[in-house]
Write a structure and sequence with these properties.
- The complex is a heterodimer.
- By secondary structure, chain A is of the alpha+beta class.
- Chain A contains 3 helices and 9 strands, in the order E-E-E-H-E-E-E-E-E-H-E-H.
- Chain A has one domain: RNA polymerase II/Efflux pump adaptor protein, barrel-sandwich hybrid domain (OB fold (Dihydrolipoamide Acetyltransferase, E2P)).
- By secondary structure, chain B is of the alpha+beta class.
- Among the domains of chain B are: about 140 residues, Probable tRNA modification gtpase trme, domain 1 (Gyrase A, domain 2), CATH 3.30.1360; about 80 residues, Aminomethyltransferase beta-barrel domains (Elongation Factor Tu (Ef-tu), domain 3, Beta Barrel).
- Helices cover about 20% and strands about 30% of the residues of chain B.
- In chain B, strands 10-11-12-9-3-13 form a 6-stranded mixed β-sheet. Chain B has a 6-stranded antiparallel β-barrel with strand order 14-17-16-15-18-19. Chain B has a 5-stranded antiparallel β-sheet with strand order 5-6-7-4-8, covered by helices on one side.
- Classes of the chains: A alpha+beta, B alpha+beta.
- At the A-B interface, strand 4 and strand 6 of A face helix 2 and helix 7 of B.
Chain lengths: ~130, ~375
Amino acid sequence: MSFPNDLKYTKDHEWARIDGNVVTVGITDHAQSALGDIVFVDLPKEGRTLNTGETFGVVESIKAVSDLYSPVAGRVVSVNNDLPSDPAVVNREPYSTAWMVKIEMSNVSELSTMMDASAYQAYVDSLK
Amino acid sequence: MDNKSLKRTSLFEEHCKLSGRMVDFGGWELPVQYSGVMEEHRACREAAGLFDVSHMGEVHVEGAGAEAYLNFLVSNHVAKLNDLQAQYTVMCNRAGGIVDDLVIYRRARDRFLVVVNASNTDKDFSWMQEIATEFRATNPSLPFTITNQSAEYTQIAIQGPKAAAILQSLTATPLSPIKTYWFAEGYVLGSIPAILARTGYTGEDGFEVYVPWAKGPEVWRALYEAGVPFGLKPCGLGARDTLRLEMKYPLYGNELSDTTNPLEAGLGWVVKMDKGNFVGREQIEAAKSSGLKRTLVGLKVLDRGIPRQGYAVWSPDGSERIGELTSGTQSPSTGLPVGIAYVANAFAKVGSLVSVEIRGQKLRAEIIPTPFYKRPY
């Protein structure tokens, strides 16, 4: 199970890569593994405004349905539209090819509420 | 997580060795998957799958009155069974609802093995005893005993086109003469007594093998080792569910419950009204003559979305709620988003259009023929 050091993490098992005031969001290695074979991804339209914790999409495996929650408030500026036609890539490359949305943050200070890799690792361990 | 209260089968250590992901399944600690549901599902369809189904309950019903009692207990015609033949059936409560679905194996004229669902074993056993008391009161000359032997058996299912060949390498009992829903009493690995039943819950050819509890790990390992060269994979509860769903085999708790009439569940073929009296018969008949309102169907979502248990089914224009999904997934064999649902009779015909509500949106769906998957051999 890998949790790259350059990312931030949420308790909903999403990762965020920060680039200025834009965060790229996906689901973690732990999340994809727990879900199993992912067969369906539904993502929002570009331009949508999200509140922190708001549901912006869904990931489904053969067995389970899991909502996607926005880690920050802001506007969706980019969507990975390749994902719905190849959902299995979420299992294979959760941190790279399987990024889901890019959000332009309304409030950059929200980042401080997210976990770093070691805190997230500890959080995942606590769930076992 | 405190798993101390969960029951374990004799194969718990084997699942751990194979990296099975253990979950709580009705009080049993069982693997939901090993390598992944999709891969396991495919292995079972294309080669073979190995399943631990030891959590199922086994009840012995024995004695001169065993057959007559069972025939009163369940809806199917038990007296039609021959030695070494098995029968799928349901037992109903006094309202005509389903207590459980089960398989009855006739080992001899006066010896039956009754296999019930894991999570229902205690409820079923109590119910069987209650009906036994009632039956004995009017049939004192027909003695029989009922014993819950669930802890004595390890049950392993080996399913798939290669299952028979793999199992044959472990037993001297010729398997090819055993037809579907028949069984043999023989041995595996030389001296381990085994019931070798050509039954299953996947839609594939295959066997369910009953061996003494303590011999489970040895038999499991031997089947696994013999099977790997054929492409066998151990399969968890996840694949077991998708395999049965593709066949529209009902699952107790999803399609069946204490309030389900077997006729609306599509189980009329195991309800024998002409065999004489049985528990629930009058109520099933009364419900039938007053008109059953819903039917269990298979459907396919035409828009982008996967149907799931509990989702509402609506009329095509979305104005009228007409039913509910009992199971659903993206079928691993066909790639289609399919589900099983109870719908109002007017919408039950193959080709009927309906809509399925998924996260607040009503998506188009169509009633399609079942099973969703047909094996090519």
